[in-house]
Amino acid sequence: MKALTKTDFNFPGQQGVYHGKVRDVYNICGKQLVMVATDRISAFDVILPEGIPYKGQILNQIAVKFLDATKDICPNWKVASPDPMVTVGVLCKGFPIEMIVRAYLCGSAWRAYKGGVREICGVKLPEGMRENQKFPEPIITPTTKAEIGEHDADISKAEILARGLATPEEYALLEKYTLALFKRGTEIAAARGLILVDTKYEFGKHEGQIYLMDEIHTPDSSRYFYSEGYEERFAKGEPQKQLSKEFVREWLMENGFQGKAGQQIPAMTEAIVTSISDRYIELYEHIVGETFVKADTSNVAARIEKNVTDFLKH
Q1: Are strands 93-94 and 23-28 parallel, antiparallel or unpaired?
Q2: Around Cβ 276, how many Cβ atoms within 10 Å?
Q3: Per-residue pLDDT tens for 193-246?
Q4: How far apart are alpha carbons 67 and 60 in whole angstroms?
Q5: Which terminus of the chain has a lower count of CB atoms within 10 Å, N or C?
């Protein structure tokens, strides 16, 4: 099993490349983007030293399925997926914010709540809530889109408008799309025996229209609980059985790493890497409801280069 952790392609019409935490994005003629989902894995805003075989394929294929399943709700950037790890789409000018929507109190929101916080991103939270409790209605808690190496920061709707990061009309549409996409994701998840707990969406503009960009409803951008046993576990105050990247964060925390200065990333043995890969395959099969078909990884870079080049030439 070979993992793709670095790319250095030179596609026809290429004008530049942006290497993100997980994705490498190639600008083609200033009009299209070729987004390669690598096998890199990040947690606590840190890229871990080992790649996870098939992770890029899994994330890309989940995102492709959900982009196709939600294009009636709002326009999205996808044009085609010429390789299992690649999506090609239209170039959008992104809003410098991420729209995070939460249906349950958990993760960083729970950690803040437990510490006494009762308002997140301008949204007031009810008293007396418990971990993993469902909110009366899903809440939107946006963050700023951080530069590489910086942490995303919570921001309120009022601050977004005051700073001119979106106009009132644009923000109203971002909220509308966010809630509608989340509702669709929730329905699809429910049909698979899952609860979509929280997720994030990124939007941009293309020819004056707002488009959904990037990934959608993947285990890197979303948290899922298993529906079965949710109520019993919640009643007993037990941790929920979840499908997300949280298990990677938990493994890191158990080994003394939370992305803070001076902390060492624990050694990622082959067994750990394989177990993470297996968990991602499990995630895929649950979320998509289909058996995962492993692509040929004997020479991933050459495969991607050929598939994308053939697509761009036509």
Answers
A1: unpaired
A2: 22
A3: 999 999 999 999 999 999 999 999 998 889 999 999 999 999 999 999 888 787
A4: 10
A5: C
